[in-house]
Amino acid sequence: MKYSFILGTMFLLLFNLQKVNAQAKRDTIYYLLDTAKVPIKDRMFRIESEGPFMFYSLECKCFPYGYGIGFYYQIADKKEKRISFQKFRQLKTVSVMQLIDLALKCLPPENRNKYQFIFAEPEGDKIRLTEMMLWIPLKPRKTITVETIGPIRN
Asked: E strands of 1-154, at which residues?
């Protein structure tokens, strides 16, 4: 009797978790990142890799602590696919201003996974879609650069 009660409770808990996961569908945000068409001095995105991550930083000082808005993906777990230009034209993309607004809505850590960000980059005659994660802004550490040292007392 005791084991059937525990088994029944576990089954109900598992069923409820499946229901919650089914409800957690995120909106997908597509942004066309065509750096080849933008002159170097006018580019708003800085792209660099560091360790196992590839970072796309939107150079906008509107994120907390004066940093740019960071998007990233793990190089080893890169989720991407290629589609034709015709299929891409059917997708609804956002402007850079809309991308900034949506990223700011995701600021509290609990809202970080509110949207699924996908960057679209032209690659030959196809468009490469890469799933990105929003970087959480970290509070910078304060460093003391000048400290007054008093006389030594005996």
From this structure: 27-32, 45-50, 53-58, 69-74, 80-84, 115-123, 126-134
Q: Average pLDDT for consecutive 10-residue bins of the chain (154 residues)?
A: 48 48 70 82 84 88 74 89 92 91 80 86 91 79 72 78
Alpha-carbon gap, residue 102 to 114, rounded angstroms = 9
> Could you write out the DSSP letters of every residue in 86-130?
HHHHTSPB--HHHHHHHHHHT-SGGGTTSEEEEEEEEETTEEEEE
Note the pTM of the prediction, 2 decimals.
0.69
Please tell me the distance from the alpha carbon of residue 115 to that of residue 133, in angstroms, as a whole number.
Answer: 9
Given phi > 0 = left and psi -120 to 50 = alpha, else beta, which region is 51?
Answer: left
